[in-house]
Amino acid sequence: MNSERALVLEVRSALTAACSSLRDGDPADAVGGLTPSFVASPASTQEAAALLRAAASSGLAVVPRGAGTGLGWGLPPSACDLVVDLSAMDQVIEHAAGDLVARVQAGATVGHVASVLATAGQELALDVPADATVGGVVATGTAGPRRLRYGSPRDLLIGVTAVRADGVAAHAGGKVVKNVAGYDIGKLLAGSQGTLALITEATFRLHPLPDAVAYVTAEFGPAQRGAAAVALQSAAGSTLVPSAVELDWPPGSPQSQRALRVGVLLEGTSSGVAERAMQMSELLASAGGSPAVAVAEAVPPRWGQLPSPSTVIRVTFWVGRLAGVLDALAAAGAGAGVRPAVTGSAGAGALYACLDPGTEHDTAVRFVQALRERLDSGASGGPPASVGPRGSVVVLAAPAPVMAAAGAYGVYGSVPGAALMRAIKDQFDPDHRMFPGRLAAI
Amino acid sequence: MEVQALVPRMRDICGAGNVITDPLELRTYECDGLTAHRSVPALVVLPSSAGEVAAVVTECARARVPFVARGSGTGLSGGAMPHSGGVLIVMSRMRKVLEIDPVSRRAVIEPGVTNLSVSKAAAPFGLFYAPDPSSQVVCSVGGNVAENSGGAHCLKHGFTVHHVTGLEIVTPSGELTWLGDGTGVTTGYDLLGAFTGSEGTLGIVTKIVVKLLPLPEVVHTLLAAYATTSDGGRAVSDIIAAGIVPAAIEMMDALSITAAEAAVQCNYPAGAGAVLIVELDGPAAEVEAELATVLTLCEAAGATEIRAADDPADRAVIWAGRKSAFAAVGRISPSFIVQDGVVPRTSLGAVLATIAALADEAGVRVANVFHAGDGNLHPLVLYNDASPGETLAAEELSGKILDACLEQGGSITGEHGVGVDKSRYMPKMFNADDLDTMQLVRCAFDPAHLCNPGKIFPTPRLCGEVPGHRRAGLPAVGHPAVAAGQAEIF
């Protein structure tokens, strides 16, 4: 007991020497039910590097934390000794408006960054919650509806500074959009969920804020699922260059079947957007199924938002297979006796099936398994195995028993490149101390 | 010695006719588009399938023989320069377009397929492949993946990495695996993103899934002539400041216009100090409005003449001068170095002035051709290779131009790659820790250091033993999915 206490004191003093803002963790800091021994808020990359060097010499499990908005997703950590809180690194370091580039500290919130960029009529074109931090958004690879046009964080990230598990700070990329010097470490860190390194700074390519926007929506009756799929596909492939093509398919109730709402975002000049909105309305109506079409400037309800579910399942696919995916979602729901809310970027091949918090664990597991079976078997028009996997069914968030029984990943076969991913992890974090347990690969 | 021992096995794998051992024939492959660096390979093989590539690499890995992949050999940084003691794996027999899925807007192709032929195959479906390096008639998409190639239109549409959604690769140990699943949504680490642009050092691509875009409804191309490049530069800044992202903004200075005129008679406005080419594409309803704004801004910046083209033939006339610029310089100089630096767009004027001053000082002529929209400069440093003094002066100037780019916060390469040519400049852009971190990726893919060795990095990292899963800290709690044997946890 005494020796254990002495060890804790020794570790604390080493961490404090590295980062003055160190404090003891409390239950409010718990990640996945694990309360960290320590929480530190480094004020600079240098301080973060010193902190991680100290953590490395003590063999501590490290969990990076931005605003914490995404911490509850994915698998919980298997250990959590030190939470590195980025909230003290919250500044926009440089906004080079003429170059459409901004360099920001990882703890800056998306909302703060947006307000700075807006003064020059520019934006970081990611539809993510304003209270999330840019570091968190990059680490989780979060992308919203406009991924169709602008991609995800990896596509907009042009430079990154990060601290490795061993406390070495390194940067990659730069502050010019066009740059092929060296390996693109930013791509590797984007979506790595904090398991490879601690991101402390990020440099992004920006876009001009559009003069005008229009949302064209088309509501298809419950029996018109096929027509809705055609409308989504035509919109996404149209020369009208939509920024987003979304599907909102609420769960409905046993009494009333649910309608499917297709939403298309157009951005551009005011005259151009008005004209394109008219053409897009015609395009959506021409898919058949007599949808109710409307054009509005206001954001449609639930646009880019997930309900507050207990379980979120991400289904990705080649867009040509959309009708089969919708059929599989409906059939798996019917088979498991559950009504998922389905929403997401149907035009970009990513949908989220969300289960109500009241869903029995067994039911949720049956739903996931049925979905994978249907998409795997080719019953929904899947491709021959010879051409590689063409999509995945990933459980993004779920109660632990559901995650354990269903498995986080279920790609049609396995995660492509899983062996190389393990090799990358071993190189960057040989002791597996960076957010241990967060990512799973079957 | 060791390489020659592989010959019988390579003949078994690829067929006797597809294994080259004749010294004269081997010399054909001694360099890529960067002819200043040459090295005759010990052996050349031309596999025809992913399985053959995997078998060839497996043999190399087993014998610990280095190997280098080569596409069309158009690279400008020596990325495909062979290893004198190794096997050159030429991908040119793998040139099938395997599938076009018009609704998913994806094409599945073999790596030897040329860039332009993807767009040709997609055209009947109203689609095209956006990345368009100037060498697109001959360069292979496999090579584009290795170099993360750009092109004139990447200003709006992005680089190769933004358009590749799946790769089948042979790892440096000879295993076939997929990176990415074609959806464009990443599951796990973004190995696809890390692999693209790794210059052939992490493995060999055997199949590629690319995104296709709908052909734009309209395309307008403008050519504006200016007295100086700084006048043209002002137009560029004003267009960007107006919130317009054209498909391309290119500029050429007086010397490169002279060269292009001599080569292809592009008939650009006589006496112009600079020409600016601006291309707008997209929905008609948007492009018409943008075109009016761009015309106004180009005039306001002092254009001496503006020409507009909206049909393919007229557009081709405007582009002819620009697309031929590199080769055209051969008309006005026996030899030249194609440089590929990048600066923040707002530093273009300052860097062009610095380049002019450096060129005067060195007594060397520099023709400037550049992607003005994204600050990617291609100064063409002219010299006579018959004169050792001139060659040296040109190389020195070329290096100083890169220094000038780095001083402005830029990059040593925007699209041609580091290869063998620029590895010595890497430490000027990245510190030892940065380079060490990049090489962790290499160690994960190629611990034996056999795959295109000697490229990108000035000094290799020793990969060492990879420690197993261990943790020195507080005892870890097993995750239920691991306990259940269903997951391996990172």
By DSSP (H or I, 4+ residues per run), the number of helices of chain B equals 18
For the biggest β-sheet of chain A, the strand order reads 15-12-14-13-17-18-16-19-20
Known CATH architecture of the largest domain in chain B = 2-Layer Sandwich
For this structure, what is the CATH class of the largest domain in chain B? Alpha Beta
Point out poorly predicted stretches of chain B: 466-490
Got a strand count of chain B?
20
Query: Using DSSP, what is the number of strands of chain A?
Result: 21
- Span between N and C termini of chain B? 42 Å
What separation lies between the terminal Cα atoms of chain A?
A: 39 Å
Strand content of chain A: 15-25%
State the domain count of chain A. 4
Q: How many whole angstroms does the radius of gyration of chain B measure? A: 24 Å
Largest sheet of chain B: 8 strands, antiparallel
CATH architecture of the largest domain in chain A: 2-Layer Sandwich
Shape of chain B: globular
Largest sheet of chain A: 9 strands, antiparallel
Ranges of chain A with pLDDT <50 over ≥5 residues?
A: 379-386
Using a beta-carbon cutoff below 8 angstroms, give the protein chain pair with the largest interface and the number of residues from each chain: A-B, 119 and 121 residues
Computed structural class of chain B: alpha+beta
Strand % of chain B is: 15-25%
Helical fraction of chain B equals 25-40%
